[in-house]
């Protein structure tokens, strides 16, 4: 795992946006796995800015979102499809045919989930998966005790996640307690993983993910098994990391580059 600690959320977002644009510039037909939540918002804004400046095109990019609520219509303002349209897709030149969500219109969740997995495989797999981190260590909607080899499926959300996401819903509004999410196994198949996490309230989850044992109790700890993961974290969220000095030192050897390390001897993920 490469751990990059940066002072502020803005710097985290800039770094993340640079990694994403590097991937697209290297491969215009990149397949991106995308995330919702507040963590990637500033990153999306920077990507939009890069597109507007003519530095980046999403014309041939395909996207697969990590998760989607069950029980909300496509155009519901809290659906993740709506979120992505609002915060990214409608501002860039992506072809809407290339946008994918784990939605299930016919309520056959097994079939819809299997289809989502097949679609990802058909596209050649995910080149870069962007992730946020839930307070309880979840990634996507893989709640604690999710199987570390799980694939796309329907999940029941924990009370903690429902509470934490209630800030996006009007109190009188229906808030789903089910979602379809890529599994941890799906995420681990991505060629590269980029997780961004900011804020004091995530510092326990960050420690569990990076320095804790690999455990289904902290789903994000499964990323320790992936050999091309970058965790970009602000100082507030990194506050309790035991080896933060080492991570900072290791990055200084790397000259804060967003691209992969060149010397395989240094590239000790
Ligand atoms: C939701 C999403 C996750 C996201 C998490 C953290 O539950 N399903 O993909 O990473 O929230 O959200 P935030 O970035 O708003 O803290």
Write the SSE topology.
Blueprint: E1 2-6, H1 9-26, E2 31-34, H2 41-52, E3 62-65, E4 67-69, H3 80-87, E5 99-100, H4 109-122, E6 128-131, E7 153-156, H5 159-165, E8 178-181, H6 184-188, E9 192-197, H7 203-210, E10 229-234, H8 235-238, H9 244-253
Parallel strand pairs: 1-10, 2-3, 2-6, 3-5, 6-9, 9-10
Antiparallel strand pairs: 4-8, 7-8
Helix pairs in contact: 1-2
Structure in words:
With 269 residues, the chain is an alpha/beta fold. The chain has helices at 9-26, 41-52, 80-87, 109-122, 159-165, 184-188, 203-210, 235-238, 244-253; strands at residues 2-6, 31-34, 62-65, 67-69, 99-100, 128-131, 153-156, 178-181, 192-197, 229-234. It has a single domain (2-257), classed as Rossmann fold (3-Layer(aba) Sandwich), CATH 3.40.50. Strands 1-10-9-6-2-3-5 form a seven-stranded parallel beta sheet. The protein has a three-stranded antiparallel beta sheet with strand order 4-8-7. β9, α7 (203-210) and β10 (229-234) form a beta-alpha-beta unit. α1 (9-26) crosses α2. The longest helix has 18 residues, at 9-26. The radius of gyration is 18 Å and the shape is globular. The relative contact order is 0.18. The structure holds 2-amino-2-deoxy-6-O-phosphono-alpha-D-glucopyranose (GLP). 2-amino-2-deoxy-6-O-phosphono-alpha-D-glucopyranose is lined by residues 35-39, 66-67, 132-134, 140-141, 161, 165.
